[in-house]
Structures are given as C-alpha cells and as structure tokens.
Design a protein that fits this description.
Blueprint: H1 4-12, H2 16-37, H3 41-58, H4 68-86, H5 107-111, H6 115-123, H7 127-138, H8 143-150, H9 154-184
Length: 195
C-alpha cells in the first residue's frame, strides 16, 4: 500500500495508477458518506464517482497540512448536495425559532437494529431532512455552516434536524420492535446434530 502523500503527488501528476490507488483506498469511506445522502446504492455510486472526479480535478488545491479524509468527506458531502439540488429534491421545512429535545429512550432501540438497518432508515428520510441530519450529526457541521452551504436560514436548519431526528426515532423504535417480535418467534429448541 502506497503512502498517501505519494498517492496524492501521483494524482497531481495525473498518474493513472495513483488515481486508482486513491480510489481503492478511500472507496469504502467515501461510499459510506454517499450512502447517507442517497436513496439507494446506485445513486450513492453515482455521487461517489462524481465526487472522485471532483477530487481528481481539484487535487492540486488540497492543503497537505490538513487531513485528507476531511477534505474528501467535504467534497463527497457537497457533491451529494449538488446531486440532490440538481434533482430538485431539497425542499426545506419552515424556520422555527426554538427546537425541542426529543429526549432519550431510543438507546435501547438502537441496540436492537443493525448498522445496515440504520443506514436504510436514514436513507428513507426526505432528502432535505436527510441532508441536514447528515451534515450536522455525521459530518459535524454547525447550523450556521449548514445554512450557508444550503442557502437556508439557521432556524430552517434546526427545524429540519429536529424533524429528521423525530422521524428517525419513530422508525428506529418500529424497527427494533419488529426485530424483537421476530426474534421471539424463533424456535426455542435447536435440533441436535448427530456426529
């Protein structure tokens, strides 16, 4: 495995092997980001490939004093936002002045669903809610930054996050209850296998 500095230098020189290595090394990380914004895997792959194209086109602007993964994550998130905008799927909820905490209670439910199930539930959120949720919760942006990125007010960002969390909490609780009920229906006796 090549050192990331050498790979980036090779990408700046348009070396095909370096671009392939960069893609290979960061595919999983970038795909995880794209899946959080997309409705399905094919859409995530489209966003991912567009994002890597942007990375290769603008690699010369990468500041080597900063972590590469952070730079890549921001490009992937911005590419996903651009993709959703192009599809006119980003419709934001109204601005609210105060957002209420949803409280706890979902922690036990989270223990009863898999990471894949959680990703699918996030993918089911309306695009605007999903985008704000991902930018705030997963990418670590603050509401003012999100507002600037998306061209909305800070209050609208907070409103969309609140609604996304409320919807996710309900979906997680339903999925956990479904998983618990299905596990209760499993046979209690295991057949003995003869040797």
């Amino acid at each position: 495995m090549q050192d990331i500095v050498n790979i980036i230098d090779g990408c700046k020189q348009w070396k095909r092997g370096s671009r392939e290595e960069l893609y290979r090394q960061f595919y999983g990380y970038a795909m995880a980001i794209c899946l959080r914004y997309a409705n399905h895997k094919d859409e995530a792959v489209e966003i991912l490939n567009d994002g890597f194209l942007k990375i290769f086109m603008h690699i010369s602007t990468y500041d080597t004093s900063r972590p590469f993964k952070s730079w890549l994550a921001r490009i992937m998130a911005n590419t996903a936002i651009d993709h959703l905008r192009a599809q006119k799927r980003l419709l934001f909820a109204e601005d609210i002045n105060k957002v209420y905490d949803l409280g706890s209670g979902g922690e036990d439910a989270l223990d009863k669903i898999s990471a894949d199930e959680l990703i699918k539930l996030v993918q089911e959120l309306p695009p605007a809610y999903r985008t704000v949720f991902n930018l705030y919760v997963m990418e670590g942006f603050q509401h003012q930054q999100i507002a600037d990125m998306l061209g909305i007010s800070e209050g609208t960002s907070k409103s969309n996050l609140f609604k996304a969390k409320r919807i996710l909490k309900e979906k997680v609780e339903r999925a956990a209850a479904f998983n618990t009920n299905n596990n209760d229906n499993l046979p209690t006796q295991v057949a003995k296998v003869e040797k």
